[in-house]
Hints:
Strand order of the largest sheet of chain A: 1-2
Number of domains of chain A: 1
Oligomer: heterodimer
Order of helices and strands of chain B: HHHHHHEHHHHEHHHHHH
CATH class of chain A: Mainly Alpha
Helix content of chain A: over 70%
Strand content of chain A: under 5%
Distance between the termini of chain A: 40 Å
Structural class of chain B: mainly alpha
Amino acid sequence: MLFAQLLVNGILLGGLYGLMALGMALVWGVLNIVNLAHGALIMLGGYCTYFLFKGAGIDPFAALPLAMLAMFAVGYLLQRFVLNLVIRSAQLNTLLITFGLEVVLTYLAQLAFSADFRTINPSYAGANISVFGVTIPLVRLGAFAAALVLAAALWILLERTRLGRAIRATAQNLVAARLYGVNPAQLYAVTFGIGAALAGAAGGLYGMVSQVTPYIGASLTAKSFVITIMGGLENPFGIVLGGLVIGIAEALAAIYLGPTFTDAISFGLLVVILVLRPARSLGAA
Amino acid sequence: MLRWLLLALCVAALAALPLIGDEVMIQYGIDALLFATVAQAWNILGGYTGYASFGNSAFYGLGTYGTAIAMAQLHLPFGVGLALGAALAVACAVIIGLPILRLRGHYFAIATLGLSACLSAIIANLDIAGRAVGLILPLTRNAAMFYEDALALLVAATLTVFWISKSRFGVGLIAIREDEDAARVMGVNTTLYKVAALMLSAFFTAIAGGIHAYWITFIDPAGAFDLTLNVRMVIMAVFGGPGTVLGPVIGSFVLTLVYDTLASGISTAAALLFGLVIVLAVIFMPRGLWDLGAGWRQFGPRYLLQNVRMHRL
């Protein structure tokens, strides 16, 4: 029974992990930027949802689209006016500038929102349902469902719309896409905006199942990294699958190996996958 | 010749600091020197070979723990501790390097990212390493000694990098950075070269960790395997100019000075400005302070705009 409960916990958390990584994978695949500020964007999304809930009294699940809209604007502006300036610089430099942004966002958040722990706790926060003796918290189930819906929405956007075609074309060949009338400055900004919006949604859900502080960014970035590599860059559902693997591995490791190993396990898995199947992850990029 | 004289004078002036400076100044000095050393060590692999390592903080942690275990648990002298730490780190570099150095670009960076977390988890479960509680080293109140040790280590690391920049080995590393397949075709034993670069990098990083451990006398897994230290190495080296002999040293001195000056005001604002400096530096001087020096002499302020024009979309 313990095993089944752990499995369910892992799956529910894993879905959210997958959503966290979706935005990073999109930006990485299309813009070739490994966005170290991704976790900071998740953090900002968490605060957005928190203040919409606490300040304006909007149900957190209903507040998610608003938070996503706000984060889209943040992401769009960041890419348009900052990151587009260095996009052709050496890869290490794009890593470095996004790290600088992560520091700036983290400490701006600390100045603006203080270092207090914030939890988004709607009236149904403690409710859960029981299936065959396995307890399923409603909020986590809702977060899991929202993650799946957003992954599906991203897939539809990429595969079935004009914008999605332009994004995929740019990821494959920037010069050719440009010749077909894609405006890269605009498209990069929109793509980064979508990535930030997904991060924002993940942040809002994260605030419901855990706590938001200005400093959660770095570890969430690291986790998103691992999942992105595992899932590959081309398919949103691959990313969600990667999130599930990490979620389940962490839940099992915490009980059977000890809680100090939860972080080590995801990186250990990553290294094993990278070393055993480098061609697969490289080919996906 | 003049340049060498000037450098020797700088080192002599730095070495004389404990004679005139007060305790606080020496403390800041030790910090700055150790940061410069780890940035320089990172430069061997990240700057010259083009492999951005995020695993160097693991070597730092191994140096820290090697020294601490030797001194606190086995009651051996400091020198033996440093040697043990360095041996652990170099051994780890070989074991980890052989599989991981097959990965390129981002994938290498990310694979190394987990190294610190894994080692930290292992150490936190070892009895001889004091588990999660940590170890306490014998107390020595001789800041001047630590300062001179750190300075000697930085000079040794910088001379090593100078030798690399002039040697066949270094040319091989640069060839790997520019085009690894071409380097292989030209007869460079790429695996051997990359592992050797990682070993050198690990060696200096570990010794710096050992000196730091003995100086602060208390270590625990979270502090010893701190990933933010690795991020600082990268920033300092890249800020100064990766793949140059003196760039990383100058970069870390400047950044440490900026950070400490700001931090004496308000700490949140200091971190914020630190982040802004990095963002602006990447936009306006993507090849570091060292290149800024050369570029400014040639083009003046236009150098900054040229960089933006060259790298924007």
